[in-house]
Amino acid sequence: MHSHSENVRAGVLNALYWDLRVPRDQLSVDVENGWVTVSGAVDLPYQRTCAEFDVRSVPGVVGVTNLIQLTDTQRAEHRADQVPDSH
Question: pTM, whole model, 2 decimals?
């Protein structure tokens, strides 16, 4: 017999699997009492958002902790975009 957390985890993994925008092989999923923690690294900010949206859409999910980080290259580019031009 599967626990509620195992069923939710299976649903989350399935949702991430079918979303081609999300690099599912770079993510890790943990579930405790319906609360899902997603971690790993993605290349683009929208991939982080898509993964969280996918997780929230799964029945039985009561909350999401999104610990997904941007890869070092993307973080550097994102910071460069935010630096005000002093000229």
Answer: 0.79
